[in-house]
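Researcher: Structure for this, please.
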Amino acid sequence: MSVPRRHHLVPRFFLKRFAKSDKIAMVNRDAPQQVPHTVTTKNAAIESGFYTIIDKNGQPSAVIENYLSDLEANAAAAIHRMDTCDGFPPTWNDRESVSRFLAFQTVRGSNMRASLQQLFSHGAQMAIDDAESDSAREQLRVELGQLSQNFIRLRHMQIMIKNANDFARFFLGRTWRIVDFGRSCLLTSDVPLAPANRTDGPVGIDNAEWLLFPLDPVRALVLGKNDGAETIVAGNQETADYINHYVAAQAHRWIYHRPQQSPLDRMELPPREPAIISRAGEGERLFHRRDAVINVKDSIVYTPFPLKRIAVTNKVIATLGGFIYL
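Model: Predicted structure, token format:
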């Protein structure tokens, strides 16, 4: 049986929620001022063979892609039920399905793969540099080059499954709310779950005050830290701008939105702030830090941290905290 090659890094069912007549606009994260490309959802967020692994018999396997397809089907049904008044707050089973979907979506994409590729390349270069002769360095370069592609893919799958299961349990324990804007104003990206804080400092899945996930152009799911009511609240333009900023700013390659709409016109995306892996000396192998400096000697960019905190108003805090009720 042939193994499907066209893999959606963002599930098609989810892209369809932002599309019109199955068409969706896509914007380059690093060139948001350019005119968007409009494509069908079938051709958006596609990468050939991204989840294909080589099994123990040396054959291509679709086991990961099949697993993700089942997970997406369960999540699509759960989110569809959440679209109705009776579907929120969700049942425990639906909550679990959506949590697993959000968790996998956080770690399954090209942003995680790129980070692993950069880490592997840096480690490989250090090993090559330490080889005792030119011939040994060349042999190591060839062997590591042959090893890299499938090794990185397998390592990504291992990390994806472990981290996603941990994240899913974390999401289940948060307070869930839906912000309903009553009109199309939200965008999404290839990294659609965005952590946000009202205070300065690094923000991630574990310490975010809010995890922001637009469900479609009209409604966003907010996973909060507090123990308030799980309910549907009315949105406002300030909150839409706040959510759009964080979702767009952390995109790896692409931002998506409904055609003929321009949610990016209301914001100026911050430049990426790279983290650096540097080699400072013989006794120090890998050193991680958040740093805006690039092109440092003996250093490479590991992964981007594009987010700078934007001003958050009391109206946004109240909305995300569930205090403006429908």
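Researcher: Any notable elements?
Model: DSSP finds seven helices and 16 strands in the chain. The chain has two domains: 6-271+306-320, 272-305.
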